[in-house]
Design brief:
This protein has helices spanning about 5-30, 30-40, 45-70, 75-90, 95-125, 130-140, 140-155, 165-175, 175-185, 195-200, 205-210, 215-240, 245-265, 265-295, 300-310, 315-325, 330-360, 370-375, 380-400, 405-435. The chain is mainly alpha-helical. Helix 12 packs antiparallel against helix 20, helix 13 (about 245-265) runs parallel beside helix 15 (about 300-310) and helix 16 runs antiparallel to helix 17 (about 330-360).
Amino acid sequence: MQPVIHRNKLFVASCLALLVTSLSFGIRAGLLNTWSHEYGLTQEEIAIITGTAFWGFPLAVIIGGVLVDLIGMKRLMFAAAVFHLSGIILTIFASGFWSLFISTLLIGLGNGTVEAVCNPLVATLYPDKKTTKLNHFHLWFPGGIVIGTLIVHFFGVNIPGTGFLSNWQVLVGLMLIPTVIYWFLFNKLSFPVTERVSSGVSTGEMYASLLNPLFLIMLVLMLGTAVTELFTGQWIDVLLKNVTENALLILTLETGVMVIGRGFAEPVVHRFSPQGVLVISAILAAVGIYMLGHTTGNMIFVGAIVFGMGVCYFWPTMIGFVSENLPKTGAVGLNLMGGAGMLAVALYGVIISGYYDKMLLKRLPANADLKTYNAAPGNSEMANALAEAKKAVGPEILNFTLIIPIVLVFAFSVLALYMRNKKKSDSLAALSIVS
């Protein structure tokens, strides 16, 4: 007897699992400066810690993409819950760089495992509207960031500690609640086999499809879309904290726009096609980053809205495009896309963080030590000097990153032309067969 597949319940549980992933981004994004001050960490050390989540993600998502057909989705979701729980608990009891490094790695592994299962799961559950439902699923990534950043902003200094825990540790502990709930829900449900398996596509065909030139091109473009969206979002509080008093709310506003945009994905994708959406997204993302790096006052918030409109469709539409146009690549193809994107963010973050620290040192007195400056008491001469340096350097990093979406505008325009010509040739071929 075939198990009953509760499609909507599986989708809800998937969204809750992704919520944990996004909460880890939102809450941690609001705590980077806290950790820098509390543990005397340089920006490069902070970048290594945050980048570890992006290293763990591709490791888990790529390995998970291979294992998902072998051991089943349910076992992988159990592994995701274990990674999340252990990473959250270790973060709560962190004492410095290495404990934060390891805990972030574990959370990254959990995040990647969730994507390794849930992307092919959603594509399998909704074969007739993959891109739309992937956008609805990924709505919970910016949604969780909104929730996480609002928690840090409004309650970060108001939630009392519990004797041996500080308030930020209590905030991190809140992630334990949805983690336990999503595993409880998944544990009660049966999972389908992936679309690739149900369609009878062999493992050999799947791996051969990964060499399709169109897939390889999409893999490269995924690097740029991921860096544009995730690097900018993860670093926004660091880059603009000394430009505006509400830097974290910029991230909240941007991701709020993403939630709304992904919620209305169906008419947008239907009207413009996935590749058309990607062209428009790249244009808006470029304009948004430009405004974030070149404006002040309320115009920064306008830039955040434009940027959010730009990046809201990037990740799910890239995955949806591959699922719709290259279905034989299967779960491995979808997860390679996600893994490549996160790997790009990790590499870019490490490179930029070193550059960021060097730019800060140029604006500080000769032979200045960043660890000493980061640990300086508030309103001291050293703290004020560092704040002024960060105020100048943050927008420069945004200007440097702006190059990426500009390149994507041209790349996606070529892709849109290619897909339009391909559709015409396929239609002509079909007519010739009928005639």
